[in-house]
Amino acid sequence: MPIQVAPSILAADFANLQSEVELLNKSQADYIHVDIMDGIFVPNISFGIPVTEAIYRHAQKPLDVHLMITNPDLYLEAFRNAGASVISVHIEACSHLNRSIQSIKSLGAKAGVTLNPHTSVTLLEDSIESLDVVCLMSVNPGFGGQKFIENTYSKITRLKELILAKGAKTLIEVDGGVNLENAPRLKEVGADILVAGSFVFNSVDPIQTIAELKAI
């Protein structure tokens, strides 16, 4: 299966957000990754529902919305209405994970769960079959441009083993520090979707960079 690429709009030029979205429309990107931060669950604040809705108005790619917020259940419907095709919640923020997953699916979106670097994939044993995607954070969430955590490779391997053992069709997404150096190995050990922010938007030619990621 060809690798999928989800450039993170968090690394875009916010003063020219429409043109940045239109640039991604012209690229081979599969999704536009939208990082939502509340300054409580993670030590940063990004943007919320109105900006997500504005991105959606110009996007020709599905929005992959990553909720790095407390009490995500309160906002699932609002983000779905704002244009999210995929909604991922953090396992660390959900007291009743199965309920959150079912709520996302009931809204007609694909359901994802995100794990912080320290969180074990074994916690997904009872829910993996109901998930469309699991996003593994390969940096500590909250800021772009961080160094990739090497333990991510073995974590992907363990998650892939769980998916296969359960007969699930869940995709593995990797978010943080992704570049052309580590992308081939990430694909080799089982990653399906690569989130890349700074690596794409700080490059001389973002469209070409996305194409190179797609071609690994």
Automatic annotation (TrEMBL):
It catalyses: D-ribulose 5-phosphate = D-xylulose 5-phosphate. Its EC number is 5.1.3.1. GO terms for molecular function: D-ribulose-phosphate 3-epimerase activity; metal ion binding. Its cofactor is a divalent metal cation; Co(2+); Zn(2+); Fe(2+). NCBIfam families: PRK05581.1-4, rpe. GO terms for cellular component: cytoplasm. Belongs to the ribulose-phosphate 3-epimerase family. The gene is rpe. A divalent metal cation binds at H33, D35, H66, D175. Binds 1 divalent metal cation per subunit. It comes from Algoriphagus kandeliae. It is an enzyme of class 5 (isomerase). Pathway: Carbohydrate degradation. This is Ribulose-phosphate 3-epimerase. The keyword Transport does not apply. One of its GO terms (biological process) is pentose catabolic process. InterPro entries: Aldolase_TIM (IPR013785), Ribul_P_3_epim (IPR026019), Ribul_P_3_epim-like (IPR000056), RibuloseP-bd_barrel (IPR011060). Gene3D superfamilies: Aldolase class I. Transmembrane segments: none annotated. Substrate binds at S8, H66, G142, F143, G144, G145, D175, G176, G177, G197, S198. Keywords: Carbohydrate metabolism, Cobalt, Isomerase, Manganese, Metal-binding, Zinc. The lineage of its organism: Bacteria, Pseudomonadati, Bacteroidota, Cytophagia, Cytophagales. The active site is at D35 (proton acceptor), D175 (proton donor). Catalyzes the reversible epimerization of D-ribulose 5-phosphate to D-xylulose 5-phosphate. HAMAP family: RPE.
